[in-house]
Every structure is written in structure tokens, then in C-alpha cells.
Amino acid sequence: MKSDIRVCSAWQSEHDRPVYTLSATCPDCGAEAVNSAPAPFDPTNPHGEYRRSLKRRRRQ
Ligand SMILES: [Zn+2]
């Protein structure tokens, strides 16, 4: 069975980081919890990683 992890829809204004929950509302602030599949924000930020590797390569 597919897990149904949701994320607080107001985490960007209410929390420092995404708050995940299995319920329909955020356990911290009570805001609506939305399906986390279509992420509104990418915490991995591949561009930051790419920039870091470029910087490292330039030092050599
Ligand atoms: Zn919240």
C-alpha cells in the first residue's frame, strides 16, 4: 500500500522546515496538510550542489 505522507501547506510561513504528517492537518499549527508528491519546494537544491562542485574544481 502506498504511503500517504502530507506536508503542512503553511510551513514556509509557520515553520523553519517542512512539517510532514499522516493526518489531514498539521500537528504543529493546524493548517491544512497537502500531499507532498508535487513538492512546492525542493530541499535538495541541485543547483547549489552544482555551484559548489564548480567552485571546488576552480580551486585546483
Ligand atoms: Zn504547520
Automatic annotation (TrEMBL):
InterPro entries per the UniProt record, alphabetical: H/ACA_rnp_Nop10, H/ACA_rnp_Nop10_sf, Nop10_arc-typ
Transmembrane segments: none
Endpoints of the signal sequence: none
Family: Belongs to the NOP10 family.
Protein known as: Ribosome biogenesis protein Nop10
Record bears the keyword rRNA-binding: no
Example GO BP: pseudouridine synthesis
